[in-house]
Amino acid sequence: MPAQLYPGAKAPAASRSTPDTDSDGLSLPKLRVRGRSVMALVIAPEPPFTNWFAALDEQMRRSASFFADRPVVVDLGAVVESIGREAIPVALDGLEERGLRVIGTEGVGSSMLAGTRWARLPTSLHGRDVAQTPRADPPGAVPAPSLLVDRPVRSGQSVVFEDGDIIVVGAVASGAEVIAGGSVHVYGALRGRALAGLKTGAGARIFCRRLEAELVGVDQLYRTAEHWGPGLHGRAVQIHCDRGALQLSALD
Amino acid sequence: MGKVMVVTSGKGGVGKTTSSASLGAALAQEGQKVVVIDFDVGLRNLDLVMGAERRVVFDLVNVVQGDAKLPQALIRDKRVETLYLLPASQTRDKDALTEEGVGRVIDELRESFDWIICDSPAGIEKGATLAMRFADLAVVVTNPEVSSVRDSDRIIGMLDSKTRLAESGERLEKQLLLTRYDPARAARGEMMKVEDVLEILAIPLLGIVAESPDVLTASNVGCPVTLHNPGSPAARAYRDAARRLLGETIAMDEPQERRGFISRLFGRRAAA
User: Fold this and answer.
1) Do residue A155 and residue B158 have CB atoms under 8 angstroms apart?
2) Segment holding A89, helix H or strand E
3) Fewer CB within 10 A of the terminal residue: chain B, N end or C end?
4) E-assigned strands of chain A?
5) Contact of B223 with B185, CB cutoff 8 Å
6) CB atoms within 10 A of CB A9
7) Cis omega before residue A48 (within 30°)?
8) DSSP B79
9) Which of B155, B192, B200 is the best residue to mutate to test the A interface, defined by the most A CB atoms within 10 Å of its own CB?
């Protein structure tokens, strides 16, 4: 769904620098005009409307905040081309019913809107398109982005959580493994394996209160215990990717 | 209703059978009615350690498969009359046991015994999982060495996931019995220290049994050490552990390095 950056979408804020005085023309206030760019969403309804509005409803249900308080520009080109100008009010009314704030149209001349209650809408707003993908609503509406394990992870056990971080309160035993889509946090000794960044990639990290691990890995890079010296053994350590290499550094 | 206690370890040779027999005998000596079940079908040992090998007629497999009644298979100890043994079969393998059959036998034993002690075989396969399946509490037998500790950790994970108690969302009580502990070697750093093992396994300590020839002797003559040599440190350790199982609070004394006669003499003279 394209969005459009254009100047002056909101009415330019006009303010007076001095209070009103007598209208004798001597002390008319100075007018200040500011420009502002805002992000508007451009949507293009397509016939058949039943299907298109059903898809819109579904989108709005999944990411309600995406449309909230966003100015909307409606591209009516497809509507006019395939049905005709009489369909324009139908499309615009449908959008308004769903609470979208239509501030302008594209793809049609101002004459096409004449005679409808939408006649005052601007038909040519200048701006450039920016890619915009509706995202699912952030935390609150979605399930927890981390997994809390509040007991030790025992030898032979495997904790896998692809949707986010894993937090272990306790030790990860030798022969156990913890695999996270995001980062791994171990509040205890890490004696087994920890793999981070299955989903988030190189941005993920591994933190542990005591490094005694057999293997650690972030985003396809891994190291076994023999690759780090005794200097880090038993210390609080974080592990992260730095320019394509795995870095282990003490936290204390 | 009796309590079902599994004695398990993962690793073999750490002292599961010796500990099952000794804890069973010690509990019986406290007046409890105890049965010890040998789950090591195919490699039965408990009958030897308890000195009942010549009295085995029917075994666990016979009872599980319905070929014999429970009272026919139970062997009563000749030294402590509240101690019983349910032996394993030597000629069959672990596939002869079914979960449903084992559950039925244990339910029946719960009716008439205070303690049902399940002596688990080594490993993490069917025999071991069936031995722990119906447990109310577990004694994890561990030697102070890395391989044993890691295997015990694995078993604790299974106790937390594969037992019926764990599956119903409850937490199985697990306690650590540290066996074959050698204080002299631990002091020299050749063996793991008690606190290291506890730190890794993170379960409460039930007792520490020091490495001792008394234990081996007792096994060889087919008599639990608490009966054979009640004054020995190992017997005392098992007796204290049994009394802790009964809810008594007994201070834990870590076995100390025993110094020989000569070195003691030497030490005293040097001090003088």
Assistant:
1) no
2) helix A88-97
3) C
4) 2-7, 14-16, 31-33, 37-43, 71-75, 101-106, 128-131, 146-149, 158-161, 165-169, 177-180, 184-190, 193-196, 205-211, 215-218, 221-224, 237-242, 245-250
5) no
6) 20
7) yes
8) S
9) B200
CA dist B244 and B253 (Å) reads 13
DSSP B152-207: HHHHHHHHTTTSHHHHTTPPPEEEEEEEEE-HHHHHTTSS--HHHHHHHH-S-EEE
Chain A residues near residue B158 by CB distance under 8 angstroms? 156
Return the closest-CA partner of residue A181 out of A200, A202, A208. Answer: A200
Cα–Cα distance, B215 to A63 (Å, whole number): 70
Q: What is the side-by-side order of every strand in the sheet holding B205-210?
A: B75-76, B83-86, B34-38, B115-119, B3-8, B137-142, B173-181, B205-210
**Disruptive mutation site among A155, A178, A212 for chain B (greatest number of B CBs within 10 Å):** A155
Determine the Cα–Cα distance for residues B65 and B71; give it in Å rounded to an integer: 15
Cα dist from B172 to A83, A151, B54, B96, whole Å:
70, 13, 36, 27
Of B213, B210, B262, the closest CA to residue B236 belongs to B210
CA separation for the pair B218, B232 (Å, rounded): 11
**Burial letters A220-251, b for 16+ CB under 10 A, else e:** ebebeeeebeeebeebebbbbbeeeebebeee
Tens digit of each residue's pLDDT, chain A (252 residues): 555 444 444 444 444 444 444 455 567 888 888 777 777 788 888 888 888 888 888 888 777 677 777 888 888 888 888 888 888 888 888 888 888 888 888 888 888 888 788 888 887 777 777 666 666 555 554 556 899 999 999 999 999 999 999 999 999 999 999 999 999 999 999 999 999 999 999 999 999 999 999 999 999 899 988 888 888 999 999 999 998 899 999 998
Nearest-by-Cβ selection for B154 from A151, A155, A189: A155
Structure letter (DSSP) for residue A85:
G
A190-to-A205, A234, A246 alpha-carbon distances in Å: 14, 9, 17
Q: Are B97 and B127 in contact (CB under 8 A)?
A: yes
> Rounded to two decimals, what is the model's pTM?
0.67
d(CA B261, CA B266): 8
Question: In this complex, is the C-beta atom of B200 within 8 Å of any C-beta atom belonging to chain A?
Answer: yes
Q: How far apart are CA B93 and CA B121, in angstroms?
A: 12
A140: tokens are 């609150």
Q: List the helix and strand counts (H, then E) for chain A.
A: 5, 18
